[in-house]
Amino acid sequence: DMLKIHFSIGITIIDDGACTSNDYLKQADTAVHEAKAHGRNCFSLFNRDTARSGQESGGGWHIRLQNALKQDQAVPYFQPLVGLKNQSERIHEALLRLPDKQQGVIRPGAFMPAAERFGLMAEFERMMITKVAQVLSAQNDPNLVFSLNLSEQFIDDGNIVAFLQGIISDYHVS
Question: Strand ranges (DSSP E) for 13-160?
Answer without folding.
Answer: 42-45, 75-81, 90-100, 104-106, 144-147
